[in-house]
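Batch manifest, entry 17 of 40.
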Amino acid sequence: MKGPIVVLAGPTASGKTELALRLAEALDGEVVGADSQQVYRSLAIGTAKPSAEARAKVPHHLVDVADLDAQWTAARYVEAAERALSEISGRGRVPLVVGGTFLWIRSLLYGLAPAPPRCEAVRRRLEACAEREGSAALHTRLAQLDPKTAARLHPNDRVRIIRALEVHEVSGEPLSAHLARHVMRPRYRFRLLALAVEREELRARIRRRVEAMIAAGWGEEAEAAAARFGEARVAKVLGYADVLKWRRGKATREETVERIAARTWHYAKRQLLWLRADPHTEWIPAEADPEAVASDLRRWIARQRGT
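Output type: structure tokens
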């Protein structure tokens, strides 16, 4: 079995980026991103991407690696992440997988669940429907066909909603049934650490972060990305549709903050469900001493390496 690797997860705004930087410095490690939006170059502020200063201190992989018109699937992520993990381990350093896209994390740790291949004809028809009726309408349809999958997907997550509907139409079975048959056997020796934040504190953190991102120029970033890649593509990313609406004068700044904070909170709750469902999750307080966490990991890594 490959490894050892450290996985640092947790809901959005829980402090993963900051702790990852401290752990990587303490463990002589490198970070492998596991965020389905931070792979894109044009989205920095609205995706809370690690700063240039952080990436100068510690090497980061799978951050800023694609343009918005590129398609990044779980399969593509696993292939790229496996290559990065192998290279980092080959240098004698510690790989830290850090992010909140748990489909990607789960696929990396346990393998991809078997599912039908893409059907371009079905996909084109569903995408055209999404353009006409909106992602929320497709989400409502998915809730009728596959309520388990619909419950974990945001109504604006057009890519995954379309994939779930595609799987159902092609195979005659819901995506959740395919996932249920997948045997979750670890492919790596790993520690899965998740940051625990009290509920109301997490909500407050989310709101503060939204306010800070807007103050940092999220609106300008969203408009620039929309001008280059089209508003429909940019609006698929959490919060960007609301920011563009505000920039078009269709909402106040306060309304925009409230909407994005509410959407982000719902997303964080889904992240927590994923983490609670994984028996390997080890919860640590968000305010835990980074050196104490690093010391524990250092001992575990030494045992795994037989040193």
